[in-house]
Amino acid sequence: MIPQETRLMIRHFVSQGEPKSQVARRLRISRQTVYNHLRFDPEKKKERKKRASKLDPYRGYIRTRLEEFDLPSTVLLREIREKGYGESITIIREYVRGVKDTECLLIMTYGIFLISI
């Protein structure tokens, strides 16, 4: 992969009317690389389709349980396995970590401190 600076120089020299083979010699890259980078449009990046997760049907349940109690992922796994979830704990851990990090960020941002007596 060539650096961003080289890509910009390719576009600059070609827009100034310099032949592509001369641009390739000047930058010490192949002509095919020059053609490839001229054909590539960085603004037309292909958007990835959002794929469904096997955890999707249980996200609402997990979120409500986490709002009620600060449960570990292992307990949540046991609970949603009773509801039909048959996959591993890894995806649950990642989701729970994201939810808990968001809650911590909100608490730190808004200065909300919960004190239990």
Report what the structure shows.
The structure is a single chain. With about 120 residues, the chain is mainly α. The protein folds into two domains: about 5-45; about 55-110. About 60% of the residues lie in helices and about 0% in strands. α1 packs antiparallel against α2, α2 crosses α3 and α4 (about 60-70) packs across α6. The model has no long low-confidence stretch (mean pLDDT about 85).
Compact description:
The protein has 117 residues and is mainly alpha-helical. It has helices spanning 4-15, 20-27, 31-39, 59-68, 73-82, 90-110. The chain folds into two domains: 4-44; 56-110.
How would a crystallographer describe the biggest sheet? none
Strand content: under 5%
Strand element count: 0
Over all CA atoms, what is the radius of gyration?
A: 26 Å
User: Share of helix among residues?
Assistant: 55-70%
**Termini, distance in Å?**
59 Å
Q: Catalogue the unreliable spans.
A: none
